[in-house]
Amino acid sequence: MGHSHSQEGHSHGSGGHSHGGGSQNSRALATALAITATYTVVEVIGGLITGSLALLADAAHLLSDNFSLGLALFAFWLSAKPPTPERSFGYKRAEILAALLNGMTLVVISIWIFYEAYRRFQDPPEILGECGSTKRPGNFEPGTETLR
Question: Whole-prediction pTM value?
Answer without folding.
Answer: 0.55
